[in-house]
Amino acid sequence: MTGYTVDRNVPWPVPIWDADTVRLIAQDLGSGAYAVVADTADEQTTRGIPQATSGGFIVGDEAVFVVESMMTPGLARQVLDLVAGVTDKPIRFVGVTSDHGDHFFGNYLMPAEARIIQHENAFRAIEETGIEPRKQAQIGWFDLGRGIEDVRYRPADLLVPPDGKLTVNLGGGKFVEVLDLGQGQTSGDLWYHDPHAKVIYAGNAFIGEKPAIPWLLDGVAERPARTLRRIHDWVPDGTRIVPGHGRVTDKDGMRFFVDYTEQLVQRVGEAVADRLTLEETQRTVTMPEFDAGYPLFGWLHFDINIPCAYTEARQRNA
Ligand SMILES: [Zn+2]
Question: Pick from 102, 46, 42, 115: which is nearest to 75 by CA?
C-alpha cells in the first residue's frame, strides 16, 4: 500500500519512517534503566534522518515501568519482548509522554494489570477528538499497512494534573518521577525521571539532538522556548536524556534544540515589533546557522515554526 500521499508539504516521503522495518533495541543505561531506540539511531540521528519513537523501561525490585507504548502493534510487541529479554518482573506501569499516537497507540497491548500514566491535558485532548481522527493523522505521516488501522483505544488510568508530579515506587529504592515541566510541545507533555540511574525520558518536547528542530504544531512557541531553557538548565550534570526520536544524549546534546527555539521567538518577535508581514518575516528570519542538515528544516522553520511564532507575537502585541 505505497503511494499514499498526504495533503502536507512535507519534504520527505511517507512514511516518514517505516514502522515495518524499524528494529528496536534496548540500551542498558545502568542501575536498571534502559533506553529503547531504533537500531539506526546511533548512526542516523546526527545526520538528521527522522528516527522512530524512542522510549525505554526502568526495572525495580518489584516491578517494571515502561516509557512509551509506541505507535503500532509491531513496535509495542518489540518493547514487550525487549523487557522480557532483560527481566521477568511484571510491567506494572506504562508512562506516555504526550497525546501523539506514536507514543501511546500501543497502550492496548500493554499488560492488562499495568496502569497507564498520562498528563491530564493529553488525556482530555484524546477524549475530545476520539481515537479515529488521530489514527488517520498518523496514517497520513506513517502510511497504511503498518498496523495503525488495528489500534484500539486504551485510555490512561492515572492522570497527572497541570504542574503536577507523581512518584512511582518500583521497589528496592527505585523511584520514577513523573513530571510536568511545562509546555514543551503540547500542553500535555510529561517527562519521566529516574534520579538514581540519572536518566530522563523526554518525549517530543525534545525530539533529538542537532540538527533536529522542534515541530511547533500546537501553535505556541514562547512557552516551549521558556520551558526548554528551564529544563536544559535544570537537568543535572551527568544525566542521560532519551529524546522523543533519536539516540540517547545529554544536556549538551539538547542545546541546539533549545537555542533554536529561543532564537526563533526572539527574532520573530523583533520582526513583529518592526511591523513586518508574515511573508517578510519568512524572507528575513532565515536562521541559516540552524539549518544544519535536517531535511525537514525548510518545511518546519518556514511553514510551521515561523507562522506559529508570528501569530503568537502578533496576538501579544495586539
Ligand atoms: Zn513522536
Answer: 102
State the residue for C-alpha cell 535536517. Answer: 294
Please report the pLDDT score of residue 9 as a whole number: 58
C-alpha 250 – ligand 1 centre gap (Å): 19
Distance 262 CA to ligand 1 centre (A): 21
Instruction: Output the pLDDT for position 184.
Output: 87
- Residue 97 Cα to ligand 1 midpoint, Å, equals 9
Other CB atoms within a 10 A radius of the CB of residue 276 amount to: 17
Question: Which residues are found with C-beta within 5 Å of the ion, ligand 1?
Answer: 100, 102, 204, 244
Q: Which residues contact 199 (CB under 8 A, 6 or more apart)?
A: 29, 33, 35, 56, 58, 193, 239, 240, 241, 242
Angle between helix axes 222-234 and 306-317 (nearest 10 degrees) is 110
CATH code: domain 24-251 is 3.60.15.10
Give the pLDDT confidence of 161-206 residue by residue, as tens digits: 999 999 999 999 999 999 999 988 889 999 999 999 999 999 999 9
Q: E strands, the chain, where? A: 24-28, 33-38, 55-59, 64-67, 91-95, 115-119, 158-160, 165-171, 174-179, 191-194, 199-203, 240-243, 249-250
CA–centroid distance, 318 to ligand 1, in Å, is 33
Q: What is the DSSP letter of 111?
A: -
pLDDT tens digits for range 29-65: 999 999 999 999 999 999 999 999 999 999 999 999 9
User: What pLDDT does residue 6 have?
Assistant: 40
Q: Is the peptide bond before 211 cis (omega within 30 degrees of 0)?
A: yes
Among 250, 258, 257, 256, which residue's Cα sits nearest to residue 35? 250
Distance 203 CA to ligand 1 centre (A): 7
Q: Show me where the domains of the chain are located.
A: 24-251
How many whole angstroms from 49 Cα to the centroid of ligand 1? 14
Mean pLDDT for the chain overall = 94
